[in-house]
Amino acid sequence: MEDLKQVEHERISTSLEVETLDVNLFRSKNLWLPPLSRGVFGGQVISQALVSATNCVGPEYALHCYFLASASPSTPILYHVEDMRTGRSYASRLVKAVQTGQTIFILVCSFQKPEPWQPSYQLPMPIVPEPLKCESEEVRYERLAAREGIHPRLKQYYISCATERAKSPIDIRIARDHQGVEVHMYWMQARNIPHYDAPFQKCILGYLSDFHFISTAPRILGLKRFGKGPTGLAMLSSLDHSIYFYDNDFDCGDWLLYVMDSPRIGSGRGIMHGRLYSRSGKLVAVTSQEGVVRADIREPGAPTRSAKL
């Protein structure tokens, strides 16, 4: 197996970079397709749309976005930014991501001037091991691939995941798989970045916020990617994604603890909630995402493949 310690990872700035084509019009420069994914990594589309919107307004915002179709990594994405409203305290922008004439993604940003004099509250940060005491994902995938008797297809999948994780601009370490009922926690950090200002830090957070989010739902259900029948994962795809920023003083170049849980999964869909904490324990952002989560189960009464339709 390739020595992953020698693999040079990509820069987060390259993943987020967009080209300015005109006023309020931007184009992607690099797109990433994760192993076995249906389309471009959703976090990259989110972050590039955020970069585009931030270039058109100030730095303070929350956001909500919708994934309408999978994006191909072979064709650039155009980001159209529309001024919805600009008030004294809040400004709203609509970003449409278009590829080959089709709108594949819509982002709504709400920018706010900070009001630090207002009262505040947050859920406390869970107690977990320090990041460097936690296993990195590339090491975990290497360990899984090295198991005896593993199916060749699954082994190759783990090897490809290990290589992708080593190349990724985001370092991910498993803080805790389960706590209580079903809570998953990961330390995440952008590798080797300078100290960027708050607007770009939020774009980086938008990128990493999509890692393991809806993909945690099938793990909660016990669905396996290469499984068959009720325990097999037939489809997994994001529908929407929200991020609510509550802090401007955080650094994605340091570690952020991403705490995830799901209040409900059913009817072929699942919803995830997330919280991102700085190492000092400050809750800097709250996230949510709904997605398609389907097991390999045929609808009752549906015709078999050999039956005429």
Automatic annotation (TrEMBL):
GO cellular component terms, A-Z: peroxisomal matrix
Keyword Hydrolase recorded: yes
InterPro entries attached to this UniProt entry: ACOT8-like_C, Acyl-CoA_hotdog, Acyl_CoA_thio, HotDog_dom_sf, TesB_ACOT8-like_N
Residue intervals of the Acyl-CoA thioesterase-like N-terminal HotDog domain: 32-112
Pfam families: 4HBT_3, 4HBT_3C
Family: Belongs to the C/M/P thioester hydrolase family.
Protein name: Thioesterase/thiol ester dehydrase-isomerase
Organism: Pleurotus ostreatus (Oyster mushroom)
Lineage, top ranks: Eukaryota, Fungi, Dikarya, Basidiomycota, Agaricomycotina
